[in-house]
Design goal:
about 120 residues, alpha+beta, two-stranded parallel ribbon, about 15% strand, extended
Length: about 120
């Protein structure tokens, strides 16, 4: 079950949503592969369910779904639910630039496809 946290008191408030990642207390919290698999399998349906409940209640309007740039499924859920979407990249700008330019670096021969 997702948890909704409201910030602000006016129209235009931002609601932060905590969506369960699917990891159990017995899972190795440092296993990033397991974390990614759990997140990809659990979080989209939880977010979709939360959005459905908010829409059904009629209490709030969802203007945007804003996600971390690595969480592509959040954008996919927004499209599916007919909601505008936005993304941000919280990591350092140099990392974003590096990731975005890997194809160019491979093409230029600066790195090979295996890194």
């Amino acid at each position: 079950m997702a948890t909704l946290h409201k910030i602000g008191h006016d129209q235009g408030q931002i609601n932060l949503v905590v969506v369960p990642d699917g990891m159990t207390t017995d899972d190795d919290q440092n296993d990033l592969v397991l974390l990614w698999d759990c997140m990809s399998n659990v979080m989209p349906s939880c977010l979709e369910e939360l959005i459905g409940k908010i829409k059904e209640s009629g209490d709030d309007e969802i203007a945007y779904v804003i996600t971390d740039g690595m969480i592509r499924w959040g954008l996919e859920v927004a499209v599916k639910m007919g909601i505008r979407r936005a993304t941000f990249w919280p990591a350092a700008a140099v990392l974003l630039a590096s990731v975005m330019n890997v194809p160019d670096l491979i093409e230029a021969g600066s790195i090979d496809p295996n890194g």
